[in-house]
Design goal:
heterodimer, A: mainly beta, seven-stranded mixed sheet, four-stranded antiparallel sheet, 11 strands, globular, B: mainly beta, six-stranded mixed sheet, five-stranded antiparallel sheet
């Protein structure tokens, strides 16, 4: 079956331009996460979606970052007025559901996409 | 101090050796994850555990909730095990997300 896909795989942009990154989660997965992996910071959480709503946006580094999810499926992460420090690999992950039930106490395995490597010149 | 600490940061082993990577955390968790990332590759979930021990092939993961510590063991290591191994926790916060908090990773190189 298809895993999590992300596009583009690579994006080079000029400082000040806006970029959109796309994530297609595994079909049927209701939880979707965006993470960022940069050389200086390692992996860090950005935003979480349950269905189309985003109950946790605590990791977004500034108001230049926003994300949406439509139809409980595809998500886009938008970075406005990109800066050089935005250069990183942006990873998307999805899981079946997130909630306080089940044998795992509500925690499900997260399946990661291949990432989008963003380079801001 | 990071909420998730891993050791060692770098590890070089000879093929066939038994390998242990350690992870300590300071927050209450609902689960601990071990992830693998090959150079230039994506991230793969190896284990998710909240108690005890899990085994998959040559990989074994253990967790001690009281001590807030987990270990990842690789038996009979092989060069193809060379990768970054990342410990991550799903922090237990009432009603909040199971977002992952990551350790800094352990870069493992297994030499033939």
């Amino acid at each position: 079956g298809a895993g999590v896909s992300q596009s583009p795989s690579n994006k080079v942009t000029e400082k000040g331009k806006d970029v959109e990154l796309r994530c297609d989660p595994i079909s049927g997965h209701t939880a979707l996460y965006w993470y960022r992996q940069s050389l200086g910071q390692g992996l860090e959480f950005l935003i979480y979606f349950q269905g189309n709503s985003a109950p946790d946006k605590s990791g977004l580094p500034s108001d230049r970052f926003s994300a949406e999810r439509t139809g409980g499926s595809v998500s886009t992460l938008t970075i406005q007025r990109t800066q050089q420090e935005d250069s990183a690999v942006y990873l998307c992950a999805s899981s079946l559901h997130e909630g306080l039930g089940g044998t795992s106490g509500g925690t499900d395995t997260q399946y990661f996409g291949p990432g989008t490597r963003l380079t801001v010149l | 101090k990071n909420e998730v600490e891993q050791s060692p940061q770098n590890l070089t082993a000879q093929e066939g050796e038994f390998i242990t990577i350690n992870c300590s955390y300071s927050v209450g968790i609902s689960a601990l994850h071990w992830l693998q990332q090959h150079p230039g590759g994506g991230i793969v979930s190896l284990f998710m555990l909240s108690s005890g021990k899990k085994k998959h092939g040559r990989l074994i993961a253990t967790i001690n909730i009281q001590e807030k510590h987990s270990s990842l063991h690789i038996t009979a290591s092989h060069p193809r095990d060379s990768a970054v191994y990342i410990c991550a926790v799903s922090a237990r916060r009432g009603g909040a997300t199971n977002k992952l908090i990551f350790g800094t990773g352990t870069l493992l190189a297994v030499q033939p």
